[in-house]
Structures are given as C-alpha cells and as structure tokens.
UniProtKB/TrEMBL annotation, chain A:
Alphabetic keyword roster: Aromatic hydrocarbons catabolism, Dioxygenase, Oxidoreductase
UniProt pathway annotation: Aromatic compound metabolism
Similarity remark: Belongs to the bacterial ring-hydroxylating dioxygenase beta subunit family.
CDD domains: ring_hydroxylating_dioxygenases_beta (cd00667)
Organism: Alcanivorax quisquiliarum
Protein name: Aromatic-ring-hydroxylating dioxygenase subunit beta
Protein's UniProt keywords contain tRNA processing: no
Gene3D superfamilies associated with the record: 3.10.450.50
InterPro entries per record: NTF2-like_dom_sf (IPR032710), Rng_hydr_dOase-bsu (IPR000391)
Signal peptide as annotated in the record: none
GO molecular function: dioxygenase activity
From TrEMBL, chain B:
Protein name listed in UniProt: Rieske 2Fe-2S domain-containing protein
Record carries keyword Ligase: no
Species: Alcanivorax quisquiliarum
UniProt keyword Cytoplasm, yes or no: no
Family: Belongs to the bacterial ring-hydroxylating dioxygenase alpha subunit family.
Keywords: 2Fe-2S, Dioxygenase, Iron, Iron-sulfur, Metal-binding, NAD, Oxidoreductase
C-alpha cells in the first residue's frame, strides 16, 4: 500500500483525485467506521457494506499472500462476514467477553483511484486495545474500495495490512 | 503468571496417575527442567521435508532453548545445525526461511556452508597450527530421523529410534499423508498462522471434553450451515462427534502420544463425503485418483477421515484437521503455536483451496476456534497460580478405560486419557536418570 502512494501519479498527491468536499466526506466516513468498530457497533458497521460481492481481507504472512495458495487472518465474503458478526455478538464466544476497549487513530487518508462511483482510499491506523489488564498496540494500513451511493459512501472491499501479519500475535477479537 | 514453588520439585509426587499439581504449569524452574529433560532429550518435531525442497533452502527453528537452522545441501541431504557461530556465539541466520549458499556471522566474518562446515575463516594467519577449522563447523543436532517427510530431532546422542518412538501412531500419521493420492504432502514455510498466548505449552493438546463449552459459539453457528461434510473441519459433522453417546473415542499411546479417534464416527459419512466431492469435476477426479491409488475400501476410509488423524505426538507436534501444529514453549506462562495447513500433492488446486478456507474458518487469531482456545488457556494460567488447593484432577473416565489391540488405551471421547498419556510420559522423562 505504501507503494501505491509512492508510485501514484503526481496528480494523486498534487491536486488530488477528488474535490475538497469529497475528501472531507471520505475522512468523516473512515472516522465513523473507526468509531463503530471501536464501540463494537456490529450491526451499524455491517450496514456500511454495499452489495453481495464484498471482500473483507486481512492478509497473513505477507501483505499480498495469495489466498488461493496461502491463508489469510480474515478472508470473508458476505456469508463468512455474517457468520463473523454472529460470533462477535454471541455471548457464548468467551474470547470476546469482556469486550476489548479500543481507540484508533486514522490518518494519511488519500484517494488513489477513482472509477465511476467507486473510490479507492488508502489510510494508516494506530489502534490501542486494553482487555483483562493487558494493553496491545496494533498498527497497519487499510485499502478501502468505497462506493458513492445515494445513501452515502459504502464499503465494497476492505484490505487491512497489519504491521505484524508475519509474526506471532495474540487474539484479534475485534474489527480492524 | 508464573510461580516459584517452595515445596521442592519432586516430580514423582507432583504428577500422580489421576491428578497433577498446578506447579507443573506455572513454575519457572520446572519449566527450565522441562527444556532440559524433555525438549533437549526426547524426539521433538523439527519440520516437514517439503519445507526445504531445493539445494540451499533453509528454515529457522526453535527447539527447546536451541535456535536451529534446517538446511538442504547440494546432494539433497537435510541438516539440522545449531544457529550459533562457533567463534563468539552470534546467530549466523536471522531470516525465517530462504535460499543461500553460505551463512556468514556478521561479528567477525566466519562463514559456513549448508552442511555447517566452516569454509571462510577470516584472518587465518592469526591462528596457529593447533586450530583445526574442521572442528569448528556449526554444531549438528546429534540425531535426525524422519517418518513420511516429518523430520524429528533429538539432542540425546543415543536413545530409542524415531520408529520405536512413534510406534503405533504411524498408521495415524499415514491418514494425513495418504489423503493425497500420491501419498505426498507439501508444507510451506511461509503459509502458517502464528499465535501466542499467556499460558502453558501443555494446555495445547487433544481434549475431547472441551468443544461443547469452549467452542459453543462455533457449534451454534456451524449448525446453521446446510452441510459441513467435505470440509476440512471434519470433526464438526452432521452429528455431534463430541458426545459420549457417539462412537468417537480418545486414545492414549505409549511415549505420551494421544489421539481423538473419529474413525467409527466418520465412516458412516463416507458416502456423503464422496457424493459431495463428486458434485465438482475436480472433486470427482480426486475420488477417482484416491480409489486408483489405494483401492475402493481404503480410499473410502481415507476420504471419511478427511486427512485428519487428530493426533498429538509428544511433546510438540499435532496433526489436526488439515494442519501441522507445532507448539513452541517460551516460558511457563507463554507459548507460541504455529499452524501450517498442509497441501495435498496430486490434486487440483481447487481441492487445496477449499481446505485453506476451511482451515481459516476455525484457526488463527481472528477465526472461529483458536481465539476461544487461547482465551481459556490464559484464564487457566491466571487461575492455576492460586495453588492453595493445587491439584488438577485428570481422572475422568479412568474406570472405563480399555486396552486395544495395538496397545493403546481407549475410552469415551470426553475422557481424559489424552491428558493422562501426556503427563505419564512427562513424569517418565522428568524423573529419568541422565
């Protein structure tokens, strides 16, 4: 993802691909998404997704390990994502209880491609988690493919590049 | 979450047939003794042959306290070398895996080849004729043996052969390997889940008693699916394999090995599994190739098993569902678990891809199964340090054990045969004379 910014056409950085108003809408949208994830508002977060062919991808081992010949931490189509929602909300899933306390900061929000009503946006995040007396810091980059609909921006796909995706990690029991 | 117990470390009394003292999970000095007496003495799993197929391939491992490099030489020989420069002791390899002709120490430039021979001594004029470079190669692990591609190491110069150590578990290892119509697996050194939990390494094991409780949410969600046959998560089939009313069994083998034996439970599902595979062209080809390779009866048996022997080889290897699991003890209260999904050779890519998605659904830090396991191991560690009433009973099912033809001890799926087998071997090794 870093490469997408470094190698982006000059206009991506210089004047930007979208007008200032759209840029502000993108930033507000990602801030809202972050707040919903921090507060475990699963139904409202799920409502941000658009269409049946969604993809929620958190790669494992490297940022681009091909899921057809490798594995991912999360590789959800809509049906798998709905099962994930059931589990996150299920009180018998004890790894998720008590819920982690979360706060994340999104920055470096830059649209890198626009095709019709779809916008690809890259960003970085730092996420603090505290749960049962332990604090973890998670960091990473995100690539959202957003659709500008009549109801506002919606997510078609989202790829999350965790900085430690090639290392041993503790439970990831919340949304990133 | 560790302790230093004041009562002494008498392993005869800390481990009894029907109970263990919680110090075996929490005590700092007992953990160090485990590394010395178990991980540095018995057979431990190192890697699968297929992880380093070509000359120059290497992979870095941790075996007990020892950092190790597994290498492949030009003649195809496999070496396990201690990752410690023979000069001042720096590690000579820091990459997790890769391909190289030389391992160079960046402290004073000593350089070794894939056999571990010292081939580059810097400033040799500084040493007199008494210095023999051939005596300063990377130290090899004393004994290396393998079974069907699974490579094991032993730091004891003498002892039981690997074949004797594995004993009656070998046909169970075959179940995983022979899920491939060519009888070959591929394990990739860069395709794995790595998770860490703040709990003891001995918690990760065969346990047929926990799924209903630890994985309650998974049962609820998977039961809403139309079908789970044909999935690598074969234990979660249409009927409950973890009920004592089922034909599933626990099995304890000599030398601390243990299995959850789903043979009788899964065989009635063979036809369903085959029918589901036959719905796709690639699946049909897989079934045909399996029958060609192993004959109708054995192929049915193997397909019903789903390549899942659910076998634990003491102390650090488990073959569960479609993956090879390696348990890496870090401290009494900290453990790393590595899970490598296996790829079947001789099948269409879609067969392996389906297995990868099944693996992902249950295993890994954000999946349906692993987080609940890690969570309960951490809760257990936090509880076990309260050793005012220190005994952990492992007596479930002792009164209904039976000895089977192959010498294994067998009982109902929820019985703690597996824990007793593990702790019996633990005690044997911890009390053995050097």
């Amino acid at each position: 993802m870093t490469q997408q910014l470094i190698q982006a056409a000059p206009e991506v950085i210089r004047q930007g691909l979208v007008d200032t108003g759209t840029q502000q809408r993108l930033e507000r949208f990602l801030a809202l998404e972050a707040a919903l994830m921090d507060n475990h508002e699963y139904d409202r977060w799920m409502a941000l997704w658009h269409g049946d062919d969604v993809l929620y991808w958190v790669p494992c081992n490297s940022d681009d390990q091909d899921p057809s010949t490798g594995i991912a931490i999360i590789y959800d189509d809509r049906s798998r994502l709905l099962e994930r929602m059931m589990r996150l909300k299920d009180k018998t899933a004890h790894a998720y209880r008590p819920l982690a306390k979360l706060v994340r900061s999104m920055s470096g929000i830059v649209p890198v491609a626009v095709e019709g009503n779809e916008i690809e946006v890259v960003a970085t995040f730092v996420l603090g988690e505290t749960r049962v007396g332990v604090q973890n810091i998670w960091m990473g980059r995100t690539i959202h493919r957003l659709v500008d609909t009549d109801d506002g921006l919606r997510i078609r796909s989202k790829k999350v590049l965790l900085l430690n995706n090639d290392d041993a990690m503790p439970n990831l029991t919340f949304l990133v | 979450m560790t302790t230093l117990i004041p009562i002494g470390r008498d392993y005869e009394s800390l481990v009894q047939e029907d109970r263990v003292h919680s110090a075996v999970f929490t005590d700092e000095e007992i953990f160090q003794d485990e590394l010395e007496r178990i991980f540095h003495r018995t057979w431990v799993f190192a890697l699968h042959e297929s992880e380093i197929p070509n000359a120059g391939d290497f992979k870095r491992l941790q075996l007990g306290r020892y950092p190790v490099i597994a290498t492949r030489d030009e003649e195809g020989g496999l070496h396990l070398l201690i990752n410690r420069c023979r000069h001042r002791g720096a590690q000579v390899c820091e990459s997790n895996h890769g391909n190289t002709r030389r391992f160079q120490c960046w402290y004073h430039g000593w350089t070794y080849d894939c056999r571990g021979d010292l081939v580059g001594l810097t400033g040799p004029e500084g040493y007199d004729e008494n210095f023999d470079p051939t005596q300063h190669g990377l130290t090899p692990v004393p004994r290396v043996e393998s079974y069907r591609g699974f490579v094991f190491a032993s730091f004891a110069k003498e002892g039981m052969s690997l074949s004797d150590y594995l004993g009656p578990t070998k046909p169970y290892i075959d179940i995983m390997v022979d899920a491939s119509p060519t009888g070959e697996l591929e394990v990739k050194p860069n395709v794995l889940n790595r998770t860490r939990y703040r709990g003891n390494w001995k918690q990760v094991g065969m346990d047929g008693y926990h799924p209903h409780y630890v994985h309650m949410s998974v049962f609820k969600i998977f039961s809403k699916r139309e079908s789970t046959t044909g999935s690598a998560v074969g234990a979660l089939q249409l009927e409950d394999p973890f009920s004592d009313a089922s034909t599933s069994r626990t099995r304890g083998f000599p030398n601390g090995h243990a299995a959850l034996d789903f043979r009788e439970q899964r065989q009635p599902h063979a036809d369903n599994a085959i029918a589901e595979l036959r719905q796709s062209e690639d699946g049909a080809r897989y079934v045909d190739d399996m029958i060609k390779a192993y004959g109708e009866e054995r192929a049915r048996d193997l397909i019903a098993w789903h390549g899942d022997p659910h076998l634990g080889i003491f102390p650090n290897l488990q073959l569960i569902h479609g993956h090879v699991r390696v348990v890496v003890p870090i401290g009494p209260g900290e453990t790393e678990v590595q899970m490598y999904p296996v790829f079947l050779k001789g099948v269409e890519p879609s067969i392996n891809e389906k297995r990868l998605r099944s693996h992902e659904a249950f295993y890994g830090p954000a999946a349906a199964g692993s987080p609940d396991d890690a969570e309960i191991f951490e809760r257990t560690q936090r509880g076990l340090i309260a050793d005012i009433d220190p005994w952990v009973p492992l007596a479930r099912g002792m009164h209904r054990e039976q000895v089977d033809e192959d010498g294994s001890v067998v009982a109902y799926i929820s019985d703690e045969i597996t824990q007793r087998a593990q702790m019996k071997e633990w005690k044997k090794l911890m009390t053995a004379k050097k």
